[in-house]
Specification:
38% helix, Aldehyde Dehydrogenase, Chain A, domain 2, alpha/beta, Aldehyde Dehydrogenase, Chain A, domain 1, 7-stranded mixed sheet, globular, 2 domains, binds glyceraldehyde-3-phosphate, 540 residues, 18 helices
Length: 540
C-alpha cells in the first residue's frame, strides 16, 4: 500500500474497535480527598480519544469517558486536607520514620502493579501512545519507585550518624517542606507525574495530584491504591481544569512546592499567584528545542536512526525530542534522502499494532497548528522533502521533513512538540553553536561525528549552554539515575532519582554544644528511641 492509502485507512469503522482493543467509556465519578473516595455529583468533562472511528463524514474522535470538573471550593478543600495531614510538620506522615514511609510507598507500588493492563490500555486510548511505549512508561515508573526507595535508603544511611565539628555535635538529615502540588504533562501523564509525586511523598510532604489535560482517566484505577496505602490527606487528587483550580490554590500561600511539567508561561503565572514566592520551592520541567548537529564526517546511518527516533518517537511529543536538525551542507542532501527513505518504511496507525510507531495526536487543533508551521516554512522558501509529509487524516498528521529551514521561519525557534522535522543547512559549526547560545532553551543537544578533536571543541562550549551533550545518540531523559534538568527557560531544579529526593526536601539538623549534659541527653534520646529524627537506626 502506498503512504497515501495507509494514511487514509488508519481509522476503522467503530465496530472494528472490538475484543482486546475495545474500551468501555470510563465515567470517573470518584476523587480522593482526606483518605476518602468522595462521590462527585457536579459538572463533568467529557473525554474524546485521539483515536477516531470512520463515520460517513470522515474520522470522528471516539468518546471514552468523563471526569469531575472540580471547582475552586473543591480544590481548596483538597488543599485543606493536605495541609491538615502535614499539620505544620507535626502530622503522622512528616514525622514518620523513613523506614515507615518506605513501607507505605512499597505497598502502593505493589497495588499499582496489579493495575498495569488497565493503565496501559488507557494510555493508548487517551493519548495515542503505542502499546510498547505505554508498557515502557508503566514499567519505568514502577522501576523509578524502586530506585527512589534504594536512593533514599542510601541517603538515610549516610544521615544515621552524628557529626562532631568545632565542639558541636550535629545530626543532619533531610526533612520535608510541606504541601506539594504535582502536575505532570500529557505526553508522560503517568511517569512524569510520578517522578515528582513519589519523591515528594517519600520525603514526607503531603500531595495534591493534578493529572494533565489529556491522560486523566488512567489515574482512576490507582485511586483505591492511593487511599489504602497512605494516611488520610497525604495524597489528594484534583480533577478539572488547571486554569480554574490551580491559581486559587497558589493564592492561599499554602502550597510549599510547585512541581510542574509544562510551559514556562503557565509556570510563571502560577508562581506569581503565590503571595510569598520566595517561600515556594519550584521543580519545573519546561520547554525545549533540542538541536542535532550533523558534522561532515558523521556516520549518516547512525545519525538518521538516532534523529528519526529522537524527533519522532511518540510523534515528537517529548520534551527531550530533537526539534531542529543542523546538517552540514556537504552531507545535507544525503542525510535528507536517507531520512526520508527510512521514514517511508515506518509503521503508522493505531497504538496496539506492534508494527506502528506513528499514531494520532491527542491535542485538539494540533494538526492545524502543525500544518500552519509547515505552511509558514514553505511560504518562506522551504520544501517538504518526504512523501505525503504534512498530510492529515482526522487526528493523524504524517511527519513532515522540512528543508532548508532558515531563521525567518517559525519552525526555527518555535517548539513544535509534534511530528515536524526542520532541517537547517550550515557551513561552519559556529552557526549551530550560535543558535544554541541565542536560544531561549537549554536542555540538550546531540552531535553526530567521528573526529574526536572536532567533537571535543564542540563539547566544551556546549556543556555550558545545555545540560546534556549526547554524542552520536539521540537526546533523552534516561537512564533515570542520570541528572535530568535544563538551563534558561527549560527547567528549574534537577530530577534524577537521587536529585529529586533533594529537590523535595531541605537539610535540617539538630545540634548541641559537646558538653557532658548534652551528650547524656542525646545518648538517652537515641538509646530509648525517643525521636524519629534524632536516631542512629540504620535501614538495611
Ligand atoms: O517529555 C519529556 C520526557 O522527560 C522525556 O523523557 O527522553 O525518556 O522520552 P524521554
Amino acid at each position: 500500500m502506498n503512504i497515501r492509502d495507509r494514511i487514509d485507512t488508519i481509522f476503522p469503522p467503530q465496530e472494528q474497535f472490538a475484543g482486546r482493543n475495545r474500551l468501555e467509556p470510563q465515567e470517573v465519578r470518584e476523587y480522593l480527598v482526606n483518605g476518602e473516595l468522595r462521590r462527585w455529583e457536579g459538572a463533568t468533562q467529557e473525554v474524546f480519544s485521539p483515536l477516531c472511528a470512520l463515520k460517513p463524514d470522515g474520522p470522528e474522535r471516539v468518546r471514552i469517558g468523563s471526569f469531575p470538573l472540580m471547582a475552586e471550593a473543591d480544590a481548596l478543600s483538597a488543599l485543606e486536607a493536605a495541609a491538615a495531614a502535614y499539620d505544620n510538620g507535626r502530622g503522622k506522615w512528616p514525622t514518620m520514620t523513613v523506614a515507615g514511609r518506605i513501607a507505605h510507598v512499597q505497598g502502593f507500588a505493589a497495588r499499582m502493579k496489579e493495575r498495569r493492563e488497565e493503565v496501559v490500555r488507557l494510555l493508548m486510548w487517551e493519548i495515542g501512545k503505542t502499546a510498547a511505549d505505554a508498557g515502557k512508561e508503566f514499567d519505568r515508573t514502577v522501576a523509578y519507585i524502586a530506585d527512589t526507595i534504594d536512593a533514599l535508603k542510601e541517603l538515610d544511611r549516610v544521615s544515621s550518624r552524628f557529626v562532631i565539628e568545632q565542639g558541636i555535635i550535629g545530626q543532619i538529615r533531610r526533612a520535608p517542606l510541606g504541601v506539594a502540588l504535582c502536575m505532570g504533562p500529557y505526553n508522560y501523564p503517568l511517569n512524569e507525574t510520578f517522578t515528582t509525586l513519589i519523591p515528594a511523598l517519600i520525603m514526607g510532604n503531603t500531595v495534591l495530584l493534578k493529572p494533565p489535560r489529556h491522560g486523566v482517566l488512567l489515574f482512576a484505577p490507582l485511586l483505591r491504591a492511593f487511599r489504602d496505602s497512605f494516611p488520610p490527606g497525604v495524597v489528594n487528587t484534583l480533577f478539572g481544569s488547571g486554569r480554574t483550580i490551580t491559581p486559587p490554590l497558589m493564592r492561599t500561600g499554602r502550597v510549599d512546592i510547585l512541581a510542574f511539567i509544562g510551559t514556562s508561561g503557565a509556570a510563571n503565572a502560577l508562581h506569581k499567584e503565590h503571595p510569598k514566592p520566595h517561600r515556594l520551592r519550584s521543580v519545573l520541567g519546561l520547554e525545549a528545542k533540542n538541536p542535532a548537529i550533523i558534522l561532515p564526517d558523521a556516520d549518516l546511518h547512525v545519525a538518521v536512526e538516532e534523529c528519526l527516533a529522537g524527533s519522532l518517537t511518540f510523534n515528537g511529543q517529548r520534551c527531550t525530542a530533537i526539534k531542529i536538525i543542523f546538517a552540514h551542507e556537504s552531507v545535507a542532501e544525503q542525510f535528507l534522502a536517507l531520512f526520508s527513505r527510512t521514514l517511508s518504511a515506518v509503521g503508522i496507525g493505531l497504538p496496539w499494532d506492534p508494527a506502528v510507531m506513528l499514531t494520532p495526536l491527542p491535542e485538539p487543533g494540533k494538526t492545524v497548528y502543525l500544518a500552519g508551521l509547515v505552511d509558514d516554512a514553505v511560504r518562506h522558501g522551504a520544501r517538504v522533502m518526504n512523501e505525503e509529509g504534512g498530510s492529515v487524516a482526522g487526528t493523524y498528521f504524517h511527519p513532515a521533513l522540512v528543508y532548508p529551514v532558515t531563521p525567518r521561519m517559525r519552525l526555527y525557534t518555535e517548539e513544535q512538540f509534534g511530528p515536524v522535522v526542520p532541517v537547517v543547512p550550515f557551513t561552519d559549526t559556529a552557526e549551530p553553536v550560535r543558535y544554541i547560545e541565542e536560544s531561549d532553551y537549554g536542555q540538550q543537544v546531540s552531535i553526530f561525528g567521528r573526529d574526536p578533536q572536532l567533537l571535543a571543541t564542540l563539547i566544551d562550549p556546549l556543556v555550558n549552554q545545555v545540560s546534556r551533550v549526547n554524542i552520536n545518540s539521540q537526546c533523552q531523559r534516561g537512564p533515570d539515575v542520570f541528572p535530568f534538568t535544563g538551563r534558561k527557560d527549560s527547567a528549574v531544579g534537577t530530577l534524577s532519582v537521587s536529585d529529586a529526593l533533594r529537590a523535595f526536601s531541605i537539610r535540617t539538623l539538630v545540634a548541641a554544644k559537646e558538653s557532658e549534659p548534652n551528650k547524656g541527653i542525646i545518648a538517652d534520646i537515641v538509646r530509648e528511641h525517643r525521636s524519629n529524627f534524632l536516631s542512629t537506626d540504620f535501614i538495611l
